[in-house]
Write a structure and sequence with these properties.
about 425 residues; alpha/beta; Rossmann fold; about 45% helix; globular
Length: about 425
């Protein structure tokens, strides 16, 4: 049996599911203390600390001259990947850009009859730093993460976009990372990773100017560094292990369901893959299909561990109860593999992204459709949203009250100020009388 089966037997079983999944919120105090040391070291020694740690963990003969990737190397990388791959990246980037352009909020101003102007000015941050994991030894780079983080920043109007990614053993970056940067017109790329790379983006060094917002996925050290730097910089979100919930009825195909569960299980031993179904037949058929497909996966061992610990088939008596479980889980990815998925959309309250229908599997969103794949995990879809253009924007309130407005409200404002014990506030208004 590749994963557990859970049968609904009352409200307690629903609470047990949430409790089981919450156990993925593992914390390691030693990681935080290590990252704090790294942050302090980079803040103190800058480039020297980056080179020293990169030599120790990534490239033994790394030197300062390799830290910033030359612009000519970035642009030349397009010739180092097949033309068909360039075309795929170009099309995916166009889809992502088209979607995010619709997210742009507008500045606005309201003029009142007395001449007062109130409004909101929307402005991009000056600089954004994007973390792109290199994958195994730099050979499985997360190209899609670069597209998903850089394009919203560009659409927002961010003028300075810096990309960091850990170098391979020879000190280079995978040509696909550089090619994706070249396609997007990004010239600022640094061969540095982990928590020290994040620290460099936050504090700045002689080589790497500091940024205002840091976005992009990473391991526990990257995630911890971002969390500890909140307040000094903005971040996209605190991301946990990936997860998928599949809500299915008897119209779902077992092979589709198994393939979609495995698409998350191969990410990480802590990734969760949950089928919530009202169909006894589907629940019975999926385990065998999981075993069959697992045997052919390159990452079979990793996926098997993920399914054993965090995979589940949850059998529900009816769709109402199934929806209760989905909203309780608040999954990062939610697939609706039902006869009429559109009829369920209004009842989904919590999900990072919703994939509606038998031919909208999660990888379509991961890579190509256009919506962002940086999504809230670990139930945080209850209160947070996907990375968007707004991640790289800030809003300033505009207050231009008229003499008439201020003098008419002066006594009321002064009264409120004095109730709070702030006499100078009160006098600041009264002096204008």
């Amino acid at each position: 049996m590749p994963c557990r089966t859970i049968r609904h037997n009352g409200p307690d079983s629903i609470a047990d599911i949430r409790c089981w999944l919450d156990a993925r919120r593992r914390t390691d105090a030693s990681v935080e203390s290590t990252v704090l040391e790294i942050l302090a070291d980079v803040a103190r020694r800058g480039d020297e600390a980056l080179v020293e740690r990169t030599r120790r963990f990534d490239c033994p003969d790394f030197d300062l001259g390799r830290l910033r990737v030359p612009v000519e190397e970035i642009r030349a990388s397009l010739a180092h990947i097949p033309a068909e791959d360039r075309a795929i990246l170009t099309e995916a980037a166009a889809n992502i850009r088209s979607f995010h352009e619709r997210q742009l909020p507008n500045s606005w101003v309201r003029t009142d009859p007395d001449g007062s102007m109130l409004g909101q000015l929307v402005r991009p941050v000056d600089r954004a730093g994007l973390y792109v994991p290199g994958g195994k030894g730099g050979e499985t780079p997360l190209i899609s993460s670069l597209l998903m983080n850089a394009i919203p920043a560009q659409v927002a109007g961010v003028s300075g976009v810096a990309v960091i990614s850990p170098p391979r053993k020879d000190g280079t970056l995978n040509p696909y990372i550089l090619a994706a940067a070249a396609l997007l017109g990004i010239d600022e790329v640094y061969a540095v990773g982990s928590a020290w790379g994040v620290a460099a983006l936050a504090y700045g060094t002689r080589t790497i100017p500091s940024v205002d917002v840091i976005a992009g996925p990473g391991n526990i050290f990257v995630t911890t560094a971002k969390r500890l730097l909140i307040g000094r910089v903005g971040i996209d979100m605190i991301a946990g292990p990936s997860e998928i919930a599949i809500l299915a009825d008897d119209s779902a195909r077992p092979d589709f369901v198994a393939a979609d569960m495995l698409s998350q299980a191969e990410h990480d031993p802590l990734a969760a893959s949950i089928l919530v179904t009202t169909s006894e037949e589907l629940a019975a058929a999926v385990p065998a299909e999981l075993s069959r497909q697992l045997a052919a996966l390159p990452r079979a061992d990793l996926a098997r561990t993920s399914l054993k610990e965090w995979g589940g088939i949850v059998l529900m008596p009816d769709m109402d109860t199934a929806l209760t479980v989905i909203n309780l889980i608040a999954p990062e990815h939610l697939e609706l593999l039902t006869r009429d998925p559109q009829a369920l959309l209004g009842r989904i309250r919590h999900a990072g992204a919703i994939f509606s229908g038998h031919y909208a599997p999660e990888p379509v969103g991961d890579y190509f459709a256009g919506p962002n794949h940086v999504l809230p995990t670990l139930g945080t879809a209850r209160f947070s949203s996907a990375l968007s253009v707004e991640t790289f924007l800030k809003k300033s309130s505009l207050i231009a009250t008229s003499r008439e407005f201020t003098l008419a409200a002066a006594d009321k404002i002064a009264r409120l100020a004095r109730l709070e014990g702030l006499e100078a506030h009160a006098r600041s208004v009264e002096i204008r009388k």
